[in-house]
Amino acid sequence: MKALVVYSSQTNNTKKLAEAAAAELNAEIVSVGAAGDISGYDHIVVGFWLKGGGPDPATQEFLPKLSGKKVFLFATHGGAVDSSHVKNGMSKARELAAGATVTGSFSCPGEVSVKVQAAVAEKNPKAPWLHDAPAAAGHPDENDLTALRKGLQDSFS
């Protein structure tokens, strides 16, 4: 099995998970903007951050290109894992990858800087994840990395 990890990361939260996924799978790793020909890969692992109720814009453009591939999705976000914001974002990712076979998914909080939280707090309406953002401090942590590795193992076995 030949796997590729493709990720988009604004604050290095998703990159941290992508690097752990690539190490776990002995896979190549590339940012979504540099992802070229994916035809030689059996399984594509896609990491992204959530924005506006869905994957970041670059990942939104990439996911529809995965038709016919086996795909594992993972995301980082400022919200709580069980929040509607996160659930809707992951559902949107699955919709965008509709031509692919999604073999698994994972999400965890990613630290949001105090500066970004303050800027978002000034907006009206406020982002739905803002009240959860302080709890994301220090994430992704080792427990998150372990959970991602477990999800990948389950997906690839």
From TrEMBL:
InterPro entries: Flavodoxin/NO_synth, Flavoprotein-like_sf, Protoporphyrinogen_IX_DH. One of its GO terms (molecular function) is FMN binding. One of its GO terms (biological process) is heme biosynthetic process. Residues 125-157 are annotated as: Disordered. Residues 4-150 form the Flavodoxin-like domain. It comes from the Bacteria. PANTHER family: PROTOPORPHYRINOGEN IX DEHYDROGENASE [MENAQUINONE], PROTOPORPHYRINOGEN IX DEHYDROGENASE [QUINONE]. This is Flavodoxin family protein. It comes from Thiovibrio frasassiensis. The lineage of its organism: Bacteria, Pseudomonadati, Thermodesulfobacteriota, Desulfobulbia, Desulfobulbales.
